[in-house]
Write a structure and sequence with these properties.
homodimer, 52% helix, alpha/beta, six-stranded parallel β-sheet, three-stranded mixed β-sheet
């Protein structure tokens, strides 16, 4: 049971976690922290948080669990603001989509990563952002990746693990660098491709008609292009080496497909599509 | 009212059209035509067609409406097989995703495109293929694009238009080349990107784990990679110039984004994502 949860950044993820923990009866009080009182007032009205503070140092007083749910580019500033204010037995974690950048930020602020800090990433979300989109069921049967470091205390890790399990998530552990490489492939690159496709099309002379002729395939393919630009800007910069590597791999493969098209290489085109369909069908069936 | 409908190629689209017309009471008899008797027998069992012929020339005898629903690469062979067998008052149309290649195939087979032929393309489908996936509601509120030529008879055009309206579709008309350019952007390129992404990921050493960490965004983004490889192989070759042009545009934009990442050009990254989100949000709201 969490006595006082502090959520720094009450958006889709932070808000959903607060709602889910309350609904599960796993948390007595939720304090929201952020810069915008209007926004935080709305979170109170929606019943997502009980009260709020705009000063992070004040917010974390008396808290046993602190969750940083700000865009990854804002993690370092949040660490700096809570430094020296956490209770001795408080545990803190984050929900950032990149883990290397968050761990580096923690190291810069605290000199070494605190034993009470557990880097984490719930693989859940929708293209909608903001507290109005928060729902208690967001983490049900979703994976949460924790990337504990050698300096992370076993007790802190256990508490964060339990928190996510209480809201229905499946918790897995992996290394920081490995997390960032895998997510670059499976999440960051697809977002960049979706953003780029929509932007490419929107800037064409016939864009109005293009979107008019778009069907359900296009709608699903580009859904993630509706995601928060600021959040994805931060992720891109935070994980740019792994992302650039994935862009390079993808572009090479797309160029090879273009060559196959140009040379009317039927076998090559059919081979690529068949391989991809096989992998996609296995993914769909849950047997990757 | 159609007296005898012949569907050449009883798959997802041809089968769904047959089901929908029957359900609407817009068709007395449906004859399926194709090469595979086992497959056609299944279509009879599913109630999609009333009977079948494996000889196209025999199938179209007595038909007032013939729909070619084979992959675009098989259109020319189908045209050749029905040539000389159509009733004098029969109308025929196709459902191919590319229109230039189908019109060229018709011209090669018939010397000039017959007045009774109306090139068409229902913008509907799912990633599933085959007659087992056919559903009567597939065309409800979907667009069907007809690309009549100067030689197309007004009567034939009206009959095909009415057929699609009877199954709930919204019929629009445009030029052949314009259709192919727009669809290259909105459908063909996204399919190629989805196939390529899944193939890129599947061939990485860590592919098993990559798919394990994939979330709903990835699932939706790659749904179309489950589409029929043969169908998409045919589309790629049939519309390769327009598709290659779109690949070039897209690759340039992706490369520019990579440069922005490499140089940590925040404004450029944020600008691109914001523009894309705006276009996607307008598309979602139905205001492109």
């Amino acid at each position: 049971m969490i006595n006082r949860l502090v959520v720094i950044g009450v958006g889709l993820i932070g808000g959903s976690l607060a709602l889910a923990l309350k609904k599960a009866g796993a948390c007595r009080e939720v304090v929201g922290a952020g810069r915008n009182p209007l926004h935080l007032n709305k979170a109170v009205e929606l019943g997502v948080i009980d009260r709020f503070e705009t000063d992070i140092g004040r917010a974390v007083q008396g808290a046993d669990m602190v969750v940083l749910a700000v865009p990854v580019g804002a993690m370092e500033a949040s660490f700096a603001q809570l430094r020296g204010h956490l209770e001795p037995d408080a545990v803190f974690t984050d929900v950032g989509s990149t883990k290397g950048s968050v761990v580096e930020a923690a190291r810069r602020v605290f000199t070494q990563v605190p034993a009470a800090f557990v880097p984490g990433h719930p693989i859940a979300g929708t293209e909608d952002s903001g507290v109005a989109a928060a729902v208690a069921g967001l983490f049900q049967q979703r994976r949460v990746v924790l990337t504990p470091l050698p300096e992370t205390s076993a007790e802190a890790l256990a508490k964060v693990r339990e928190m996510w399990q209480r809201v229905g998530a499946e918790v897995v552990e992996t290394g920081v660098a490995h997390h960032d490489e895998v997510l670059a492939a499976t999440s960051h690159l697809p977002h960049l491709l979706a953003y780029t496709l929509v932007d490419t099309l929107a800037r064409m002379d016939t864009s109005e008609e293009i979107f008019r002729y778009a069907a359900s395939g296009f709608r699903d393919f580009t859904r993630i292009a509706g995601s928060s630009p600021q959040m994805w800007h931060d992720i891109c910069l935070a994980n740019r080496n792994a992302i650039l590597d994935m862009i390079r791999r993808f572009t090479e493969d797309l160029e090879q497909l273009a060559v196959a098209l140009r040379t009317e290489d039927s076998a090559e085109i059919l081979g690529r599509f068949t391989r991809a369909k096989g992998a996609r069908d296995r993914f769909k069936a849950g047997k990757p």
